[in-house]
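Encode chain A's predicted structure.
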Amino acid sequence: MSRRVLVVEDDPDIGRLVTLQLAELDCECRWITDGVTALAEAQAGRYDLVILDIMLPRMDGLEICRRLRAGERHTPILMLTAKSSEIDRVLGLELGADDYLAKPFS
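Encoded structure for chain A:
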């Protein structure tokens, strides 16, 4: 059974890399590059995981996370972002992210 993953990433290189790697793990991916569209898709669709960048056009990932956690569903959220300070990590986790991974990563 394929897992559904919403990838929210505005950097085309990273977005392609993440979706390709997830496809090799038999994940069905939807890749979105802006925050407003991503929030609407996350709220409307049924996903097993949301991989969420923080710095996005139109709405940042922290606001998306906050709004998703205010809803009834509790889809796991992985923050994948260049913001790597301890305060950014703590804020992301306090807003409801399940884990936080800083870029660059290997």
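Strands lie at 3-8, 27-32, 49-52, 77-81, 99-102.
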